[in-house]
Design brief:
Elements: E1 2-3, H1 4-8, E2 22-23, E3 25-27, E4 37-40, H2 53-58, E5 63-66, E6 78-81, H3 85-96, E7 105-110, H4 115-128, E8 133-136, E9 140-143, E10 146-149, H5 157-169, E11 174-178, H6 181-185, E12 196-199, H7 207-210, H8 213-225, E13 232-236, H9 242-245, E14 252-257, E15 264-272, E16 275-280, E17 283-287, H10 292-307, H11 312-319, E18 330-333, E19 339-343, H12 348-361, E20 368-372, H13 382-393, E21 396-399, H14 409-417, E22 426-428, H15 432-442, E23 448-452, E24 459-462, E25 465-468, H16 471-481
Parallel strand pairs: 3-4, 4-5, 5-6, 7-11, 7-12, 8-11, 12-13, 13-14, 14-15, 19-23, 20-21, 20-23, 21-22
Antiparallel strand pairs: 1-2, 8-9, 9-10, 15-16, 16-17, 18-19, 24-25
Helix pairs in contact: 3-5, 4-10, 10-11, 12-13, 13-14, 15-16
């Protein structure tokens, strides 16, 4: 516990309250407030926390952080008026948990694609080498060997600092975390101390939230702009925004490339369906990953690990033993050699990367059947792009539901099909289960099926309801039903 004055000492505020209560916990959800808590009135996209200040006080809040005072104030409550409640929450959360990120080697990974794979492989590598590490990712949170269900790519500032405090207390040396564009502009990571930052790539995504591609770039770049001079930053210069990201950073900059000279250089020597032979900084190694996008991910992992002080040979040896992340180019085979690949690709660039990888490893006699959809209540401009990419590469593309949320699935498919032009090599099957089953029926012995969009997710959001649905389970069942017994 901390006193209120301890928590606000680093804030720039004009109205320092006379009251100095002891704060038992921090909370921004009025329904979860308990006696002695400090409540943060957050202005969100769907609701405004200022409307719930009275409810929070009724439940026992002794301090309220807000952007405007309520019409009637309670004399027994300390009110702190700030410019941005999210930013204040980040600062106060770090103070409440004694700035745990300063006691960890914290590495943040940002970009459109590759964040989860890169952060997870760094965690897996550290654990395999005998270090204790934490992971904050889209798929899962980990503290050492403990698994915690993931709710957001980057959680709120209170939960972030609470988890990092547990990591420190339980002996973790490292924390590897995905840094989403939302988390940057919502100030969730403001008070964190990063040892290093990694940029993977930047493509079309999240325009439903950021509005324009320019704003999306700005959000990603802010992460690097805010690094201090004691940090390092690694950027992928093969991406057109790679140099943009590090233009104004105070951190020491390192560059990686598969195409040109760089601080960290990788070359693909051979690519097969079950792995690749790579040369990283002139050292050859076989890895259990395939695809150019994974070559970038592994080079990024190598760069980060060596900058953290781990001996390069040890890094390369461990890289050769690591396995792909769940739902990322995850292969499910059948006895007759038919293969289903389940991948999280849900942006045009990610889908393009996966399909180009499959094109490089498939034989001329193998059909490629692509099952994909687009999420509802999200950026609609990428829907026709994804459909166009699918029909360009697939023998047959099957357009279906992803997470339609509150949009009509049929309307989402209409948006997708608007991008296929005169192509006729597609089917439209709204029900995702039926789409996967149809794909297995169309597949002949030895063909390849790509099921894209959901990857590791074991649910489908229809309306506001989250229903159990796992692409991997569904394709296994479909293989059996279509007499392609799962191996």
């Amino acid at each position: 516990m901390k006193t209120l004055q301890e928590l606000i000492s680093e804030l720039s505020i004009d109205n320092i309250p006379l009251l100095n209560p002891t704060i038992t916990a921090l909370e921004y959800d009025s329904r979860k407030v308990e006696a002695g808590n400090c409540f943060f009135a957050i202005v969100g996209t769907a609701s405004d926390g200022h409307n719930y200040i009275d409810a929070a006080i009724e439940r026992g809040a002794v301090a309220v952080v807000c952007q405007r005072l309520p019409e009637r104030c309670n004399d027994d409550v300390a009110y702190i008026v700030v410019e941005d409640s999210n930013a204040a929450m980040a600062m106060m959360a770090a103070a409440y948990y004694d700035h745990p990120s300063k006691e960890l080697k914290l590495v943040g990974v940002t970009g459109t694609n590759g964040k989860t794979t890169t952060a997870t492989l760094l965690y897996d590598m550290a654990m395999a080498m005998g270090y204790r590490a934490g992971l904050i990712s889209t798929v899962v949170y980990r503290i050492g060997s403990e698994t915690i269900p993931s709710t957001h790519t980057t959680p709120d500032a209170i939960r972030l600092n609470a988890m990092m405090r547990r990591m420190v207390d339980e002996g973790c040396n490292y924390c590897f975390m995905e840094v989403s564009s939302h988390s940057v502009v919502q100030h969730r990571i403001d008070a964190l101390h990063f040892t290093g930052a990694l940029f993977t790539n930047l493509t079309h995504d999240h325009l439903d939230y950021h509005g324009t591609y320019k704003e999306y770039i700005r959000a990603k770049k802010l992460f690097f702009d805010r690094l201090d001079k004691g940090a390092w930053a690694v950027t992928n210069i093969d991406d057109r925004n790679g140099e943009v990201m590090v233009q104004n950073t105070a951190a020491k900059v390192y560059r990686l490339s598969l195409r040109s000279m760089a601080d960290f250089r990788c070359k693909i020597i051979e690519m097969l369906s079950d792995g690749m032979l790579l040369s990283i900084d002139n050292n050859e190694l076989w890895v259990r990953f395939t695809g150019r996008f994974n070559a970038y991910n592994l080079t990024t992992v190598y760069a980060a690990a060596t900058l953290l002080g781990i001996e390069p040979r040890e890094v390369l040896t461990t890289l050769s033993m690591l396995t792909p992340v769940s739902g990322r180019f995850e292969s499910i085979g059948a006895e007759d050699g038919t293969i289903a690949i389940v991948d999280y690709a849900h942006t045009p660039d990610a889908l393009q990367n996966v399909l180009e990888t499959i094109d490089e490893i498939r034989r001329a006699d193998q059909q490629l059947i692509v099952v994909c959809g687009c999420g509802g209540d999200r950026d609609s401009t990428k829907r026709p792009e994804m459909a166009a990419i699918a029909v360009q590469h697939a023998t047959t593309a099957i357009f279906t539901s992803d997470n339609p949320r509150t949009e009509r699935p049929e309307a989402i498919l209409d948006d997708m099909i608007a991008g296929v032009g005169g192509a006729t090599n597609y089917l439209r099957i709204t029900d995702r289960r039926e789409a996967i089953r149809t794909a297995t029926m169309l597949a002949k012995t030895g063909d390849i099926i790509l099921i894209a969009g959901k990857g590791h997710e074991d649910y489908q959001i229809i309306g506001t309801e989250k229903r159990h649905f796992d692409d991997r389970d569904e394709v296994r069942k479909a293989f059996t039903a279509t007499h392609l017994k799962n191996a």
